[in-house]
Every structure is written in C-alpha cells, then in structure tokens.
Amino acid sequence: MKHEIQSPSIPDKTGRELIRSNGSQIADHSVKSSRFVSRAKTFSRVAAVFVMLVGAVAMIGWLSDVDWLKSIYGDITMKANTALSLMFMGASLWTLRVANHKSSRRIGEICAATAGLIGLLTLTEHVTGWNLYIDQLLFTEPPGALATASPGRMGITASSCFIIFGIAMLLVYRQRGVSFAQALSIASGFWALLAIMGYAYGAEALFGVARYTGIALPTGIALFVLCFGILGACLDDGMLSVVCGETAAAIMTRRLTVVAICVPFALGWLCIAGQRAGYFDLGFGTALSVSAIIMLFLLSIWRVAVRLQRVEQRHLATEAKFERAKARLAGIVESSEDAIISESLDGVIASWNGAAERLFEYTAAEAIGKSITIIIPPERLNEERLILEKLRNGERLDTFDTVRITKSGRRINLSLTVSPIRDQHGEVIGASKAARDITERRNAERELERLLLQERSLRAEAERAARLKDEFLATVSHELRTPLSAILGWSTILSKDPSDQATVGNAIAAIERHANSQAQLIEYLFDVSRIISGSLVLDVQAVALTAVVKAAMDSVQPAADAKEIQLQMIVDPTADNVRGDAVRLQQVIWNLLSNSIKFTPKGGQVVVNVDRSNSMARVTVTDTGEGIRAEFLPYVFDRFKQADGSITRKYGGLGLGLAIARHLTEMHGGTIEVDSAGEGLGATFRINLPLVAVTAVSDIDSIKGAAAELTPAKNVPDLHGIRVLVVDDAADTREMLRVVLERFGADVTTAASARETLDVLPAWQPNVLVSDIGMPEEDGYSLIRKVRALSSEKGGDIPAIALTGYVRVEERMRALDAGYQMFVPKPVEVGELATIIASLIG
Fold first, then answer.
1. How far apart are CA 794 and CA 781, in angstroms?
2. 481 neighbors 805 (Cβ within 8 angstroms)
3. pLDDT in tens, 432-454
4. Phi, psi torsion values for 701, nearest 5 degrees
5. More confident call, 145 vs 561
6. Cβ–Cβ under 8 Å, residues 708 and 484
7. Taking 60 as the threshold, does the pLDDT of residue 188 lie above it?
8. Distance (Å, whole) CA 550 – CA 704
9. Contact 180/171 with Cβ under 8 angstroms?
C-alpha cells in the first residue's frame, strides 16, 4: 500500500486519485499555465530565426554590394557590424533552448558576449570620438552615407541595445538575476520601439539622432522582436513569471498587454495618416483617436472580465468537487480498519483516525500535537529518525514489520507503510503512516516455525534412528559372522585331518572361544528383546555382593592376564548384603569389567571397590584405559551407541552391554553412572544398590556356550601352485584360512593389516588377494585402492576377494566399485572360497 498525496489532510492514494478524477486540482495562484509558457518558448525560437534572417539578408547585401538589401526598407542602411551583431544575438537566443549541453551553452554565451562587445566598442567611439577601426573592419563604406556620423558605424540606439541585450543573455545563461535581465530586455525593447514609432509617425528625431548615426527600420524591428524573444525564453522565471499563471492578474496582464501596445500605436498612425491626407484636422483626429482608444480599452476590459468570470466559476466548481472528495476521503480514512496517522517532518502528530484510537488506546485529542515517540519503544527511536531522514531525502520506503507500544504499555506487532506527504510544489512536508496489527499473524508464524522445528527434529531423529538401525544390523551381522567364520573353518579342518594333535588343539580352543563370543552376543540380543518387551524377570533373593563381584572377576581373569592387566579388589564387609538376581548382578559386573579390560592397554590396571554409601552398597570399577570423550559421556548407556561405530574401529561389540547393565541395575532399584576426565585418562563406573539386613549367598553358575555344527564342502577344488595372500586383523581367522587353503594345495601367506599387505605384495607376488573389509586403522576399501594404484609388475592387477561380515547391498556394491572382483560374506564356507579362488585364476 504505497501512496503519495498532495494535501496533508488527505493521507492516502485513493484521495489523490479521486481528486484527479474530478478534473484538475484547485488552481493554486502560483501554478503556471504550461500552454502559455510553451507558446512563449516557441515564439522565442521563431524570434531567434527572424533576427538571424534579418542580419543575414543585410550581410548578403554588403557581400554583393546591393544597396536595397543593405537597407531592406528606407534610405538608412544597416551597417555590417549591426548585421553581424544581429546574427550573433539570434544564434545566442536559438542556442538557449539547448543550454543544458555544455558546448551549446558555451557557444551561446560567446555569441552574446561578442555582440555586446561590438556594441560597447561602437558606443565608446560615439561618446569619446575615438576611431577604434572596427566600423569598416568587414566592409568599406564611402563617406556621405545618409544618417551616418562615420562610414560603417552603427548608431547609438543599436549599439546601446546590443550592449544591454548581451548582458541580459549572459545573465539568462548563468541563471542569475533573471528579473534584472528581463528588465534590461524591456528597456532595450522600448528603446527600439521609439525608432519604429519614429518611422511610423515620420518623427525623424526618434530614428536619426542628431550628429550621430541613425537606425534602419529593419534593425529597430529586429531589436524589438529580439526583446520579446528573450522575454519568451525566460518567461516562467523571474519577475515576469506572474504573467504565466492562471490568476486574474496573470490573465488580465496577458490580454491587456497586447492591447496596450498595439491599439495606441495603430490608432496614432491612422490619425497622423488621416491628417496628412487632409481628411480631418489635428483636433478632430485627436478626439477621434482618444475616443477609439477608450472604446477599445473598455471592450478589452469587458472581455477580460468575462474570461475571469469563467475562470472563477471553474475554480468554484473545482473547490466544491475537492471539498466533496475531501469529505468522502475523510470518511474512508475514519472507517478504515488500518490505523492511519500523519505527522510533520519534526515527528509531531497531525491526524489520528478511529482505528489508531482503537489500536494505540490514545484518543485523537490526546495524540494530535504530541510527538510520534509516544507509541515508539525506546529501543526503536532510531528507526523513526531514519524514516524521517529518508523522507527528507526523497527516498522510497517499503512496507516493513515493526513493534509499537500502546497507552497501557502493551507491545504490538505492526505492518507499517510510510509514504511522503507533499505540498503543491512537490516538496515533502510530512509523513503518512498506515499501520496494521499483525500480532495474531506473528503468533501464527511463531507457532508454524515451532512446528517446523519440531518436524525437522522428529525427522532428524527418525533418520538418525534409521541410520542407527542400519548400522546396528550391519554390526550384528559382522559380529555374528566373524566368529562363525572361524568356527566353520576350524570345523572343516578337524573333519579333514583330525590326526594332527597340535592343529586339533588349536581348532578346539578357537571354536570354543568364538562359540562363547557368539553365545554372548546372542544373549545380549535376547536380553534387549526382553527389556523392550518387558518380559525380563529377576529371580530376587538375598545375595552376597562380594561373592558376585569375585565370580565376575574370576570369569574375566584370563582376558586380563592375556593383556597383563592387574585386577584388584577392595571390599568393605558392611556393603555385602543386597537383594537381587545373583546371575543378573554378575552379568552387570562382568559387563563393566569386560568393558574396562577391553579398553585398557597392555600393562594397565583395573580396580574394583565394594563399599557402602549411606544405605546403598556401591561397586566402583576404575581403569587406566582410553577414557571417554566428554561429548560421548551422556550416551554411554544408550542402546547401540558406540564411541567409534565405523568399520575401522579397533574394538568389536554391539554397543549393548552397558545399556543392558543400566537396565538391570535400575530393575534392582539401583543406579549406574560413569565418569571420565577425558581421552587417555581412564574411566570410572559406579553401581549403587540398596542394602538389606538379610544375609544370603547365591551360587553363581557359569555360562557356557555350545559350538555350531557345520558340514564341510563336498567338491574340493585343487589350488596347487596358486599363491594366496590372506589379510585379516583377526589372528584366528587368518590362521584358519591359511590352514584350510593349504589343505587345498595353495601356497598361503598372511598379513594382519593393510600396511603389512603393501609390504608383502610386491615382494612375494601372490596370484590372489583375500582381504577382510573391517580392519582397524585402515580398512579393506583403502587397501584395494592402494593396490590398484600399483603397477602390474608390483601386483596392481592381482585378482582380489572381499571377505567381510558386513553383508548389506551397499557394502557389496562399494567393495566391487573399490576394485574387488568378488564379495564373500562371513561366515566363510571354505570350499566355496576355494572354488572362487580357483575360478578367478582359471
């Protein structure tokens, strides 16, 4: 709703349009008549051409030595300098219409100055009697010419007119002292008119000054026309601008000026002509002339009065339409649902409609005359200053949202439109403001924004859950298939050659180890399922907490010994009596201990402290391991959460052990918490369980797993002469694959990492590469890319098989895109693997 208005009392666009639709606006007395001004400027251009033409005709007469062209009319000739000056003045007047162009303006000023200089030098010769040798500079005139003081010298009338006209034109070009320039032009025109009247009435003294050069009739006419040409060019400025308006004075001046000049001149000439012809004597002619002048002036006055009456009637009609439009607009503004306020450029309120009263709670009487700052919050006062500053500079203001305060101090959100209020001259004199309450809209926007944020949050959470689900399934697949691969491989070895006692011992140990690992993983999954479904039931009875902790420590002692980790237990006998499920409590302690041992480096220490804290038994497990990042601490006990969930992670697992430990602890009425100073600074887990007065010790049964029963492959390929490089970070898997493939006749070398593989490959030159994907530090994808970057001589073209527990379609496609020829999921069926190797070579 952008708008500008012409009247401060009509502050909207509709008002302006209604005023225009009712005809022209009320005529202001200073408004110029564009039609009259346009005609005056057109006359100015015609006058310039006429003056140049008169001068050019005389100049041609001097060039061709034709006397009648020199004088055009009468016996007094137009001097060459006079003709040249007329041409200069006409050119200067013509160029005035394009005075905005710098070059044209400079030419016009030079022409005016040259003509004025010629007149000044000639007048100096007349006054001082000097001969400045300019009179016959262009052409030579013989002595004795009529009304000529010196051959070739222009008269006093013409020279003085050129001086005055030159000054006037320079003032008009400079746009300084236009009124003075107009006065000079009128004086020169009157001076030229005397010469014309002298010729008309036969008064030689008016055109032939005694002892000085006279003025030719064409020169006088050209100078008189030049006077009106200059006035027409600047008629809309200076003191003559009053005649350009639509006022009674302007109309009367325009109509009577022509009558005042032409009627007396024409009647005087007719009177003298009648007397000379003998039609009447001097007295009769004078009486007749005066009577005619009176009658013509009365007729002119009557016509002007009629014209003024019509103008006045139009003014009255326009004023009536304006008042009706104003009243109509006042009703529109007053009934508007938007608050409409007008103010001065000083910020003083000038108008205040009914909607503003309802919105801001101030009545019109309370608001009008006060500063607009009464509704502006203190922190937004600078906003009003910028608005008024932009309006003063004529800059456009777009609708914007802001905040205002009501009389009661309530803040409201507004959509504010600010428009300039202009006077009849187009000058900005104030501001009109239309305000609409958008509080409800803003509240709806905030609610929509809140819902959008909530939707984004829920969607992000859903995407995160889906991603976690995919990662969990991939991890479950990997963690289940990896021990299955070793179990299946060693089972095949045992079925093929059970006579080698060393191999049998290694096979049984590996199978048992991996079966226990798999059983633990499966048990974790069952526990999570029971927790989610609410079917997990505790066998609650009196439990000796120390015995539970000791049993858990005994079960993890072999793992601690393997890493040379010192296990230490500190017991407070007063914290031994709790109620709970002994097996589940041992599971909780075992999870914490296993976690600490897994993340504690070789030679570290794990301390278990059983003590009492008020009415709670507390078990604290402290290790010197890798510690936990501060940002991961809140998520330690979340299901499926691991600090490193990538396939390059150092440690396996599903991320379920600690989540199950937390749930089991809470089922016992206790709490579990974790603390860590940061990475590399170890971690501390604390379990708090309610103490009871009854003492009982539960027998703790150890958990044993069962090995899976696998069927060996029937069709066994021959791999004699084929060199196979096996890469896997799991030592059991590497050893199993080496033994199996050697049984098929292959020559096998193993590597535990990508770096070791790149060292072995160029030197040993294997025929086939079998690599695990999920390895610490550097995975199988990175390995195959580096292998493919090698030259053919160094093994860059070797056939490669991806061996992994990650079995998603994306993993399969990623492996093939990375450079593997085949993708074999775990658990590995050794016969199938041997067949694939043979097919790649064959």
1. 19
2. yes
3. 888 888 888 888 888 888 899 99
4. -85, 135
5. 561
6. yes
7. yes
8. 18
9. yes
Say how far apart CA 765 and CA 749 lie, in whole Å: 11
Instruction: For residue 714, give the amino acid letter.
Output: K
Q: In 3-state terms, what secondary structure has residue 274?
A: helix
**Contact present, 349 and 372 (Cβ < 8 Å):** yes
Q: Is the bond into 712 cis (omega within 30 degrees of 0)?
A: no
Owner of token pair 């005994």? 554
Residues 6+ apart with CB under 8 A from 551: 586, 700
Dihedral angle of Cα 428, 430, 432, 438, to the nearest 10 degrees: 110
State how far the Cα of 122 lies from the Cα of 155, in Å rounded to an integer: 8
- The answer to whether 831 touches 712, Cβ cutoff 8 Å, is yes
**Strand intervals (E) in 153-275:** none
Which residues fall within 8 angstroms of residue 175, CB to CB, at 6 or more apart?
A: none
**Which structure tokens are listed for 483?**
């021990």
Task: Report CA 551 to chain centroid distance, whole Å.
Answer: 69
Find where tokens 């002007």 sit.
304
- Contact (CB, 8 A) for 816 and 783: no
- From residue 68, give the alpha-carbon distance in Å to each of 53, 85, 215, 767: 15, 20, 15, 124
C-alpha 471/C-alpha 465 separation (Å) is: 10
Residue 146: both structure tokens together: 């009529």
Q: How far apart are the C-alpha atoms of 416 and 375, rounded to whole Å? A: 13
> What is the rounded distance in angstroms from the CA atom of residue 493 to the CA atom of residue 497?
6
Strands (E), 530-604: 541-544, 566-571, 577-580
CA distance 308 to 304: 6
Average pLDDT over residues 413-420: 88
Where are the strands (E) in 661-753, listed by range? 671-675, 683-690, 723-727, 747-751
Question: In the predicted model, is pLDDT for residue 242 greater than 80?
Answer: no
- Please name which of 64, 46, 43 lies closest in space to residue 54, comparing C-alpha atoms: 46
Considering the chain, what is the average pLDDT of its residues? Answer: 80
Instruction: Note the residue count of the chain.
Output: 842
Q: Which residue stretches of 611-692 are H helix?
A: 657-667
Report the alpha-carbon distance of residue 55 to residue 84 in Å, rounded. Answer: 6
For the chain, what is the largest distance between any 2 Cα atoms, rounded to a whole number of angstroms?
A: 172
Distance CA 119, CA 806 (A): 110
97: pLDDT strictly greater than 90:
no
Pairing mode of beta strands 605-613, 616-623: antiparallel
Distance CA 478, CA 484 (A): 10
SS3 sequence of 374-387: HHCCHHHHHHHHHH
Q: Are 171 and 161 in contact (CB under 8 A)?
A: no
Q: Express each pLDDT in 488-519 by its tens digit.
A: 777 877 777 776 777 777 778 777 777 776 66
Q: Contact, 232 vs 172, CB < 8 A? A: no
Burial tier of 406 (Cβ tally within 10 Å: 0-12, 13-18, 19+): middle
- As given in the structure block, the two tokens for residue 213 are 């050069």
- The closest alpha carbon to 735, from 723, 752, 718, 760, belongs to 752
Which residues 6+ apart lie within 8 Å of 266 measured at CB?
Answer: none
* Residue whose pair of structure tokens reads 């100055």 in the numeric block: 113
Residue that is written with structure tokens 């296993």 in the block: 594
The whole-angstrom separation of Cα 246 and Cα 29 is 7
Provide Rg for the chain, Cα atoms. 57
CA-closest candidate to residue 136, choices 153, 122, 120: 153
End-to-end Cα spacing for the chain: 83
Cβ neighbours of residue 708 closer than 8 Å, sequence gap 6 or more: 484, 487, 488, 491, 515, 518
Q: Can you state the angle between helices 80-95 and 156-174, rounded to 10 degrees?
A: 20
Q: Which among 388, 455, 372, 468 has a CA at the least distance from the CA of 421?
A: 388
Phi, psi (5° rounding) for residue 361? 75, 5
Question: pLDDT-derived band of residue 232, with 50, 70 and 90 as boundaries?
Answer: confident
